Amino acid sequence: MSDFRFPEFDDLPTVQGQPKGCLWGFFDVDGEKDQLGTLRLLTEEVVRKAKDEIQTGVRVQLDWPLHNVEYPGFGRIPLQHDIKDLAEEGYVGFDDVITLNTQSSSQWDGLKHWGSQKSSLYYNGWTHAQLKTSNNLGIHNWCDNGGIAGRAVLIDWVRFYSSFMKSKLKA
Predict the structure, then answer these.
(1) Which residues neighbour 18 within 8 Å (Cβ) at sequence distance 6 or greater?
(2) Over the stretch 50-100, which tens digit does the pLDDT of each residue have?
(3) Rounded to two decimals, what is the model's pTM?
(4) Upper half-sphere CA count for residue 52 (Cβ side, 13 Å)
(5) Considering Cα of 148, then 153, then 159, then 161, what sign does the dihedral take?
(6) Contact (Cβ atoms closer than 8 angstroms) between residue 2 and residue 44
(7) Taking a C-beta distance cutoff of 8 angstroms, is the pair 95, 84 a contact?
(8) Are 6 and 27 within 8 A, CB to CB?
(9) Which of 67, 109, 138, 146 could make an S-S bridge to 113, C-beta 3.0–4.6 Å?
(10) Residue 4 in contact with residue 113, Cβ under 8 Å?
(11) Are 49 and 57 in contact (CB under 8 A)?
(12) C-alpha to C-alpha distance for 41 and 2, rounded to whole angstroms
């Protein structure tokens, strides 16, 4: 779908101290270290063309119920979900109280989540010290560059709202 082509594996530049095929620096622009990686390929044109790929309209659920992780790895605590009865405080209702280690479920990890254990470097050569005191390689970079959704459903909220409400929506 994209016109972008990577070089052949044997033609990739060498990154000192990294295994063959490492693309650190590949997406740098004007000497500024890249913080998006291959998300740079998700351009407006690519997203626009994605609509042509839809063939069936079948929806696919991508989430995973949080309670399915019975034994989260690395000593992490499993999901704890309690329901607080607000009647005890004089209200009619319930609150969900959730304790969740974000690493024990589906989650978004920025490029600074896990570094190369061999070189002690993160994506594109960032050091632990550089990342500890900065926002570099965080997931906010994805949002600042348009997000990562390539396809979505647009709801005609105005038409839906006007079908049952008497007052008009304010712009």
Answers:
(1) 24, 116, 119, 121
(2) 888 888 887 777 667 777 777 777 888 888 899 999 999 999 999 999 988
(3) 0.59
(4) 7
(5) negative
(6) no
(7) yes
(8) no
(9) 109
(10) no
(11) no
(12) 8
